[in-house]
Amino acid sequence: MSQATFDDDELFGEAAAETREDVEQHLSAARGALPTADDIWETDADNVLGVLNGLKSALDVGEAPEHLRQAKKWYTLGERADAFEDAEDLEADIEAVEELLETIEAAHDDVGELTGTVPQLRSSLQDAHDDADGDASDDD
Which pLDDT tens digit goes with each residue over 86-137? Predict the structure, then answer.
């Protein structure tokens, strides 16, 4: 084996290790950007709208999508270059973070809808009860 081939293999091995490390770092950063369990569970709000607004804010995923994108990009590069000896763990971690991110984003959208609906519902219920009280006083 020539010196140049050995150096190429050694460089490729280093690059593969660095690529794996990049994937792992971006996955870690994506997880770190996600809200904590306590962030979405605990509240200081005085009413339902306050709870919903707090939950909507708590469900902000920050930079997690960008970190996940970077992890997927480096993973794809490493896979296509056949740089990883064992990449099943990376693939599973990427899928787990991606599924969690999708769940959080769906919950954020649901809470956003409720944040818009609850005040309208409250107003409609107040009107309905005011009408009922008005009808009752008309009967007297």
Answer: 899 999 999 999 999 999 999 999 999 999 999 999 999 999 999 887 776 6
**Cα–Cα distance, 38 to 36 (Å, whole number):** 5
Pairwise CA distance, residues 39 & 17, whole Å: 35
For the chain, domain boundaries: 3-139
In this prediction the pTM is: 0.82
Q: Which residues contact 53 (CB under 8 A, 6 or more apart)?
A: 45, 115
Q: What is the DSSP letter of 82?
A: T
Which two structure tokens, joined as six digits, stand for 110? Answer: 């649901």
In angstroms, the CA 50 to CA 59 distance is 14
